[in-house]
Amino acid sequence: MNRFEACPKIFFGEDALDYLLELPPEKMLIVTDPYMVSSGTIKAVTSRLDRNSIEYTIFSEVEPDPSIETVTAGVQVIFRDKPHAIIALGGGSAIDAAKAVIYLCLRIKSGLMDQQYVHNPLFIAIPTTSGTGSEVTSYAVISDHQQGVKIPLSHRSMIPNVAILDPAFTKTLPKHLIAFTGMDVLTHAAEAYVSPMVNDFSNMFAAEAAAIALECLPALFADASDTEARGKMYSASTMAGLAFTNSGLGLCHGIAHTIGAQYHIPHGKANAIILPYVLRFNMDPARGAAQRLRERYARLAKRMGLIATGDAELCERLVLAVTKLGARLEVPASLSACDIPENTFMADLESNIDKILEDIGTKANPIPVTREDLRSLLPGIYHGSTRHTLHGYKR
């Protein structure tokens, strides 16, 4: 039986935060990061809770790529304060941390009491970046810094009940975050569109998100005050999240999870670097790519507004368009540009391959991925091998 889950309830626009004024006067926990507090951004939330006489605690210890230790600390706060609702405010890290905290609390409670007494809290996600789509997904990624790995989690209990989308939160994003989070949107959309678990509904959201990213990212990168582009990218992030939470991701994320954790590369940046290589890999008939898969990539290229004669050229146009977009956004063309010593990268190759092969993204890739494939692919991503020569363009 096929299934498409369209959660959560989404409030969007300039007055979307006023939803908080409708909440009952019950205790809340706000999960966020230190910058949201120090910059005063959190006041947009707390002022509304104060107006409604709602008691709240602020847990602001979330770091980029939240760790197991941070999640554990959040769980302790929940058991201490017993909030009725949780508000996650921030980028993907804050929302993922809140998800993992909720998931772990529910697991602990399920082991201690009868299931009829275990209830999900009201979970409200307020993203301040346009990238992860975490506000509408059942996924979270937590880092084990001791082992140097990222741990993808997936469970329906981690889907927020409410997502609040106010584009004003993204007004002050620096250019590099506009680039990396925007390319994360495109990666989510592209991988969801060709997933083996794809369906008509996820297709619709994935294609629209990809088209918006290709059109609006350059404009937003060039002018962060472009209100229309900013609003569209905010919506595209959520659309891509709805797509991939229902159809899954692929090899790009499988590699990015491992490489990002091993070499401390932000997730969006890792995806942005890796995506063109994985597109090329998945389109290669020599790697086992079926004609049907290449047709799907060609269809995505058309939905993104690319024009060519025939599927083969459309596939080539798609890879070229993604590569050119990365170049315009000043995305590094290779992992070697991330200050990873070559001898270190090659020494880690086999252990990294082990982790990539176990990743849920790799396992969901539309074509099978072998150890030999990765022994060829990963050094190419590191060195920035020439991949795209259509019309003489090289990167």
Descriptive account of the structure:
It is a single chain. With 395 residues, this protein is an alpha/beta fold. It has 2 domains: 9-170, Rossmann fold (3-Layer(aba) Sandwich), CATH 3.40.50; 175-383, Dehydroquinate synthase-like, alpha domain (Up-down Bundle), CATH 1.20.1090. It is 52% helix and 10% strand. The chain contains 15 helices and 8 strands. The protein has a 6-stranded parallel β-sheet with strand order 1-8-5-4-2-3, covered by helices on one side. A two-stranded antiparallel ribbon has the order 6-7. Helix 9 runs antiparallel to helix 11. The chain is globular, with a radius of gyration of 21 Å. It starts with 8 loop residues before the first strand and ends in a 12-residue tail after the last helix.
Secondary-structure blueprint:
Blueprint: E1 9-12, E2 28-31, H1 34-38, H2 43-51, E3 56-59, H3 68-81, E4 85-90, H4 92-112, E5 122-127, E6 139-144, E7 149-154, E8 162-165, H5 175-193, H6 200-222, H7 227-247, H8 251-263, H9 267-283, H10 291-303, H11 311-328, H12 342-347, H13 349-358, H14 360-363, H15 371-383
Helix pairs in contact: 3-4, 5-6, 5-7, 5-9, 6-7, 8-9, 8-13, 9-11, 10-11, 13-15
Oligomer: single chain
Overall morphology: globular
- Low-pLDDT parts are 386-395
Total strand segments: 8
Number of domains: 2
Spell the H/E element sequence. Answer: EEHHEHEHEEEEHHHHHHHHHHH
What is the helix content?
40-55%
Rg estimate, integer Å: 21 Å
Task: List the strand order in the largest sheet.
Answer: 1-8-5-4-2-3
Number of helices: 15
The fourth-level CATH homologous superfamily of the largest domain is Dehydroquinate synthase-like - alpha domain
What's the rounded overall pLDDT mean?
A: 91
Question: What percentage of amino acids are in beta strands?
Answer: 5-15%
Would you identify the CATH architecture of the largest domain? Up-down Bundle
Top-tier CATH class of the largest domain: Mainly Alpha
What is the SS-derived class?
alpha/beta
* Largest sheet entry: 6 strands, parallel
